[in-house]
Amino acid sequence: AQMQQEKLMSIGRLSAGVAHEINNPLTTIMTSSMMLQEELEPDNEMYEELQIISNEAQRCRKIVQSLLDFARQTKPMQKLQDINSIITESIYLTKKQAEFSDIVINSDLAEDLPRIYVDKEQLQQLLINLILNAVESTGPGGSIKISTINFSETGEAGINVSDTGKGIAKEDLEKIFDPFFTTREYGTGLGLSIVHSIVERHAGTIEVDSQPGKGTCFKVRLPVGGVGRE
After folding, report:
1. Beta-strand relationship, 156-163 and 143-151
2. CB–CB of 211/164 below 8 Å?
3. Whole-angstrom distance, CA of residue 180 vs CA of residue 172
4. With contact defined as beta carbons under 8 Å apart, do 213 and 107 qualify?
5. Using one digit for the tens of pLDDT, what is the confidence trace for 42-78?
6. What does pTM read for this prediction?
7. Alpha carbons 16 and 67: distance in angstroms, whole number
8. Fewer Cβ atoms within 10 A, N terminus or C terminus of the chain?
9. CA of 100: how far to CAs of 11, 83, 188, 198, 212, in Å?
C-alpha cells in the first residue's frame, strides 16, 4: 500500500507539471480561434472549422483539469457536515446531465445519519464523479439510486451509489481504481482514482458490487469522527 501511495504521488506531481505546461498553449488556441471566429459570419465555411478547434481545445482543458484534480493530493479540510444535504446538492448539480441522458436519480437517505467530519468539497467531488460515472454507464430509461446508511455499531456512515447500467466486467473490477484505466473512448481514467484517493484521505473504504448487464453499486464507508479524531 505504501508503494502504491508513493507511486500515486509521483504520478500526481508529474501530472500537475504536465497539466500546467499544456494549459497555456491550450488557452492560446482557444482564444485565437474565438477571436478569428468573431471576424467571420456564421455561414462562412471557416466558422465551423474554428468552432471544432475551440471545442476540441476545451475538451483537452477538461482532461487537464481532471489531471490537476487527481494531482491535488491535499489533506481534507474537515468540518462537521450533514452528508445527506451534500448528497442532495450533488444530485442537483448532476440532474441536468442525467435528464439529458433520460436517466432518473433517486435518493434514499437515512434520517438517523449523524453529522460527520469530512471535507465538503472533496466529498462533493467524490459524489459527482460517482454519479456522472453511473450516468455514463447507464442507458436511456435507466436509474441511479443514492442511499445513506448509519453503521452506528462501527461508527461509520455509508454512502451507496447504484445504477441499472451495463455493469463492469469481472477482469476489469480490480483495475477500475487505477489511474488512467478506462474502457471509454473519451475517458481519462482519472475519475475513479480521484474517488479512491478521497476515500483514503478520509480513512474510509470503498467496495464495488457489479454484475455485467445488471448494474453496479459503489459502497463508500466513512468514519464519523473523521481522520485522527476517534
Report:
1. antiparallel
2. no
3. 13
4. no
5. 899 899 899 989 888 888 887 777 667 666 656 668 8
6. 0.70
7. 7
8. N
9. 34, 26, 22, 28, 24
